[in-house]
C-alpha cells in the first residue's frame, strides 16, 4: 500500500479542468493507439514469466549452477532493473547475484570479469536497437574473455533481449540463441516492465508477477479516473514555476530508483515543444537523510525554483534500536535512546518536510507501508503515468530523444565507422 | 597533471576585471584572517600523518589485525573521504577496507554489522559539532552491538575526530580515547583535507601526503596569480545566466567525487545574499558515459540553463580491448574492434562535448592524465577555490548553512529533546 500526500497547490478553474481532461483523454488514446506500449506491459509481460520459466526448466543444468546473472546493457536497458534489484534483494535468500556490465569503463569491466566465471554465469544482453556501441563492445569482450563458443550448447548461457528484427535479434537467430522481444513501441526508459526488466529479474529469482500486479493495479485505477492526484501533480509541474524537481528518498535501497526517475523525467520532458521552444523540467535525485545535511541548504535559501518529493518507507521490517546508554558528556542526545532507526529516519523525513512547508516550498510525499514487489510496481507505474501526463500538458513528445543522436554520430565518425 | 579547458565565454571588460581582482583580494584576506581554515590544510595537516603513524606504532596489535576501518559520520564528515577512497582503492593492494556507517537506515547499518567483527575493525567517529544525532546514535549502537568496553584497552579501537572542546571531544577525554582535532574554522564540506579525511584515509593505507602535495601545488599557483581560469570560470557562474551546473564524469570511480562536488556547491552557494535575495547555483552530478543516454536529452533540448563540466581520465592504466571479432549480422559495429575501452569512453566524452559546443551550450573540461593522489588533491582544492571565488562574486557567505537548522530543531522536538 502506498499513500500519496500532496502539498503542491494548484488552482482548478475551468481552464485547468479542461487542460486536465484533454490530457487525460490523450492518455487514453495513447494507450489505445499504442503511441507508447508501456501501458500494456502489466498485462502483456505475464507471458514472459512463462517463457523464462521454460528456459529455466530446459536449461536446468546451466541455471542451477549459475550464481550470477550478468546484465550487459546501458541506460534504459539497465537502470530500471538495477533499481528493482537494489530495492528487493535484501528481502530474499537464495537468489542469484545480479551484476551489471554497463559503463564502458575499463576498470569496472575488469573488476566484474575478475568476480565471475563462465561456468557460474548467465549473460543477458539487452539493447533495444540491437546496435548500442557500449553493449555490443562489452558483449564481444565477454565472448573473447570467457572463450564462449556460440556454435555449441554454451550459447544457452547467453540470452538476448532486443527489438524484433534488430541486428542483435538476427545475430541471435543465426546462432540459435534465445531471444526475448521488446515491443517496438516501448522506449528504453519506459521498458523496465517489458522483457528488459522481467527477464533478468525473474532469472535472479524475484517475484516479478507481484511487481506487474502492483503496476496494473494503479494503472487500472488511474484509467478508471480514481486517482486525481497524478493529474493535479502533473498540472503543477507543467506550469513551470518550479522547473527543478528533487526526489528525496529516505532509504539507501532507493538510490537506484532515484536514478531511474531522473533519466525518465529528464529524457522524456526535456524537449523542444510544439512552438519550437526549449522546454523541460530538471530532475535531481538524492538520499534525503544524507543530503538534508547539505543540498537542503540550497533548497531553503537558494532560488525558489524547486519542488521536493519525499519517498519514505513506513516499516523497514528491521528492529535495530538505539540502545539506552548514556555517553559521558554527550547525554544531550539521549532523547533518541530506545527509539528505532526506523523511527529516526522517518522522523527526519517528516521534520525536513515540515521545515520546507513552513517556507512555502512545494512538496509532496509518497509513503510505502513496506518495501514490497507490489509497491515497487506501483511506484514505477506512478512515475511513468505522471511523466506521460506532464508531457501532454507541456505539449511535447514524451517518447522520443532526438537530442542524443548528434553525439553518437560524432562518436562513430571518430572511429571511422559509417553510421 | 591536470589539464583545464574552458569554453565558457566571459567578457573581460573593466568592470569584470575589477570584480575579479576584488574577489581575489578577498580570498587572500580570507586565507590570512582564517575566515575559512581550508586554505591552510595542505600545510597544517602534515602533522596529522605523524600522529596517525604514532597510533599505528603504539597500537600495532590492533592495527595489524584490523581489516576494516569503519567510518561513523555523515555528510561533510564522510563524503570527501568516500570520494577519495572510491577513486584510489583500485590502485592499491593490501590496504584496509573502508566501510561507512553514515545514513541512519536500519538496513544499511545491519548489513555493515553483519560484515564486520570488533576484532578486525577500527572505528573512526567523525562529527564536527560532536553532537550529530545520526552519528552519535550509530556510535552508541556500535558500542552496544559489539560490546565495546570503553574503560579498557578496547577503547584503542575507537578514534574520535571532532572540534576541540566539543561534547564528543569531552567524552573522548573522559575515557582516554585518542582525539584528532578539526580546526574550528574548517566547515564540514571543506574538511576532507583536515583530520576528517586524513585520519581514515591514512589508516586505510593511502599515500595521503601526495594528496596534500597536489592540493598545495594548485593553491600556491592560484595565490601566485598563475591560474586565471578559476576566476574566469567563477565569474561565468556568478553571472547566473546558467544556474544549473552539471558535472559529467567519465569514470565510475568518480561517482562519489561528483557527490562530494554537489554538496560543496549546493550548500556553499545556496544562500540569501547581501540584499536579502534567494540566490545560488544548482549542481547535478552524473556519470557522463551512462547518462549521455538520457540526461543529455534534457541538456540539449530542455531550457538552456545548464553548464556542463566534463571530467575525463586520459589513461586508466588498463589495457582492456574490444576484441577483433565480428558477430554475424552486427558487423556494423566492427569499427570499434581492436580499440581499447579507455579510448572508447574518452571518445564518448569528446563526442558529447563537441555536440554540446555545436549547440552553444557552455562547457569546460578537466582532464587527469592518470588517477593519482596528486591529481585528486589538486581536483579537491580546485573545486574548493572555485567555490570560494564564486561565493565572493555572488556576494554571499560561502561558509555557513543557516537553512538546515530548522529541520534539525523540528526533529529534536519530535523526540522530546531540548536542543
**Which CATH first-tier class of the largest domain in chain A would you pick?**
Alpha Beta
Domain count of chain A: the total is 2
Q: CATH-wise, what's the superfamily of the largest domain in chain A?
A: Glucose-6-phosphate isomerase like protein, domain 1
Strand order of the largest sheet of chain A: 1-10-9-7-8
Number of helical stretches of at least 4 residues of chain A? 17
| Residues in β-strands, percent of chain A | 5-15%
Q: Average pLDDT of chain A, to the nearest integer?
A: 96
Helical content of chain A, roughly? 40-55%
**Alpha-beta content class of chain A:** alpha/beta
Computed over alpha carbons, the radius of gyration of chain A is 23 Å
Secondary-structure element pattern of chain A, one letter each: EHHHHEHEHEHEHEHHHEHEHHEHEHH
Instruction: State the separation between the terminal residues of chain A, measured CA to CA.
Output: 48 Å
Q: How many β strands of chain A by DSSP?
A: 10
CATH domain fold name of the largest domain in chain A: Rossmann fold
Largest interface: A-B, 120 and 120 residues
Quaternary structure:
homodimer
Report on the biggest sheet of chain A: 5 strands, mixed
Q: Globular, elongated, flat, extended or rod-shaped: what is the shape of chain A?
A: globular
Weakly predicted, low-confidence segments of chain A? none
CATH architecture of the largest domain in chain A: 3-Layer(aba) Sandwich
